[in-house]
Write a structure and sequence with these properties.
Strand content: under 5%
CATH architecture: Orthogonal Bundle
Strand order of the largest sheet: 1-4
Shape: globular
Distance between the termini: 36 Å
Number of domains: 1
Length: 325
Amino acid sequence: MVKSNAGRTLDRQRLGHLAKEYFLVIVVALLIVVFSFLNQNFLTGANIQNMLRQAAANVIISIGMLAVVLTGGIDLSVGATAGLAGVLVAGFIRDGMGALSASLLVLVIGILVGTFTGFLVVYMGLAPYIASMSMMLIVTGIKLLYSHSLSISIDMSQSGFLMVGRGNFASIPIPIWMMFVMTLIFQFVMSKTTYGRSLYALGGNPEAAYLAGINSKFMTMSVYVISGFCSFVAGIMLASRLASGSPSTGTGFDTNAIASVVIGGGSLAGGRGKPMLVLFGAMVIAMLSNFLNLMGVQNYIQRIITGGIIILAVFISERTGTKKR
């Protein structure tokens, strides 16, 4: 039986949709092949494990960033807040607080930081980039003041806390487990719950979301809380891996998170993006950085290349989004 024109058109649309969905997966696979060919150390088990461990913090922060971006916002404070988390948890442990209590207290502070950023956006009417940039400056000042601009070491006797960033479970580093578990949780929340669907609706068409009865103020507040929480989780994990909290930790995570979201198909205009694809977007950045390090490329050259990739990714993302709209 010969397919009708309508049937063939539908098939082409489905193939086009699948191609867009899996394009990033194909890109990651191609990068693995190319980088492995150019440097024999790239595909070794030790290097892959190291690369994933280093990418874990960026992935977790990027998931929080995605939640904000879905509403059409942006959070420029994520790097600074991750650094604050590390400084605070290291300081609390140094001052005699138990590692678990210190970590939980720091996570609560992270939620409060996110809540305040959301308050600036929702109730004070500040543009997201202004509100989050202001929070970035405030948080940077606090962590420098608290740490006296010095790293705070975590005693090696804190084996339980250090296990979070340095330990393994089933021969896989715990940060990698945390990265995948949080990605899967957020993928489920975004795709299978009313909350997740409301986020997409709010970012995709705010007027329709309002008419549908979605509480835009609550939703907008909540995404900054999520972003703050994710940043502080990443900061605690980094402090555990480095056995110290440094005020310089987190530098560059804001741009990396934005890049991961956009490379992963997210739109800075809101309403588009998936946690699993953000994971792959972060992997592109991690693999590129790792490969350039293996090739001995200077850090400033790496920044130039990463910046160029961000520009290209934003251009492609926004062009695609415009065509869809």
